[in-house]
Amino acid sequence: MPEPLLSNADVQHPDGWLDAHWMAFSANREFKAAPRLIASAEGSYYTTTDGRRVFDGLSGLWCAGLGHAREEIVEAVGRQVATLDYSPAFQFGHPLSFELANRIVEKMPTGLNRVFYTGSGSESADTALKMARAYWRAKGQAGKTRLIGRAKGYHGVNFGGISVGGIVGNRKTFGQAVEADHLPHTQPPNGSFHKGMPPAEAPDGWKGAALADELLQLIALHDASNIAAVIVEPFSGSAGVVIPPVGYLQRLREICTAHNILLIFDEVITGFGRCGQWTGAAAFGVVPDILTAAKQITNGAQPLGIVVARQEIYDTFMEQGGPDYMLEFPHGYTYSAHPVACAAGLASLDLLERDSALQRVRELSPVFETAVHSLRTARHVADIRNYGLAAGITVAPAPGEPAKRPWQIAMDMLRKGYYVRYGGDTIQLAPPFISTEAEIQSLIAALGDSFNATA
Ligand code: PLP
């Protein structure tokens, strides 16, 4: 039996109490042998069931940048549950969803102004992909169905998302449901240690922005008349914060425009502040045709996803003809535009504005960048990448066990009171926007010690 990371002596439950919950994206056997139970959260800290404070170095799962249990969000959610806890998502509306849509549009790049609601990032990815196919059908080009993602891309876990997604471990167990191809990944070689956005052509021999031209090969192979959309994250989050080089997204945009292919940005991680802008699109200076987001919109307090489309896409659906009562886009979820989630979204937007949170991210980012890159000389560090308040550190693999060291490092950090994410061969960081400089420094110092202490 492995040593419990946190004492759960205070959790008085019969044997087998942990068995019924089949946990998501978790090593169930490992967890249940040594559970890590969180009792509460406030600001940038969790409190475990045995009373330890843990700094939230990933803002939950990249979603609680404003910190936990913010009074304004708590109040908005409570008030909304008491006023209108649910209203039918189909054929009915409630004022908050329209108010929130207008507020979201204000934050979007010009031209992205029609908001479709979902319940999560995965639902948003599949909605965007279906929207792209249906759009071309409505325009009389039903052959345009093929979808193109990117190696190491993550677009959630539904069938569309894993088909275009490029994290092999998430795909191979389930197969591919939708015809999709993948652009090569934008990751420079280990040891590049690029800060922020990498250069278009790097001296380390990496091809840089020319990678985007590989889309032309897929277009030559399939013909643009068969391709509906290209979907990418502005930077890949779950793959370990992989930042595309200068000019890469611009070139993708040019090629998509020239060949009548929709460009979708999955901004589930990059949206609503983490880049120091409202969107990665604004940070990178490229406007997609469709943009998805989730997570930070409600500060993680309620599940909510969005798909924001160009008006012409919306208008194409509206102009299909047929009777007024016909559904223009037969798609949606019971929890689309959930009133409580919309209330949380409005309260979060208020706080992001009132606290000048984006400005704070821009101020803290250089401090975070310098601190994170100071780990360059720590043991096992193979590469470091960062953008805004996000960073990925590639860990040199232990012989025969590529994923073991990141797990060991994350667990060591937890023992010391810091939560960081391990995924594949990386450690990932996304501290809250409200972090202090001292908290960033102590997070990184502790991480350096954990790397050095790992065999
Ligand atoms: N897309 C991206 C870029 C993500 O990072 C994630 C989750 O991390 C998702 C989609 C899936 O979101 P969810 O877990 O809310 O379904």
TrEMBL record:
Protein name stated in the entry: Beta-alanine--pyruvate transaminase
InterPro entries linked: Aminotrans_3, Aminotrans_3_PPA_site, PyrdxlP-dep_Trfase, PyrdxlP-dep_Trfase_major, PyrdxlP-dep_Trfase_small
Family named by the database record: Belongs to the class-III pyridoxal-phosphate-dependent aminotransferase family.
Top-level taxon in the UniProt lineage: Bacteria
UniProt GO MF annotations: pyridoxal phosphate binding; transaminase activity
Cofactor(s) for this UniProt protein: pyridoxal 5'-phosphate
PROSITE patterns: AA_TRANSFER_CLASS_3 (PS00600)
Alphabetized Gene3D superfamilies for the sequence: Aspartate Aminotransferase, domain 1 (3.90.1150.10), Type I PLP-dependent aspartate aminotransferase-like (Major domain) (3.40.640.10)
Keyword ATP-binding: no
Pfam families: Aminotran_3
Keywords: Aminotransferase, Pyridoxal phosphate, Pyruvate, Transferase
Gene Ontology cellular-component annotations: cytosol
Keyword Signal: no
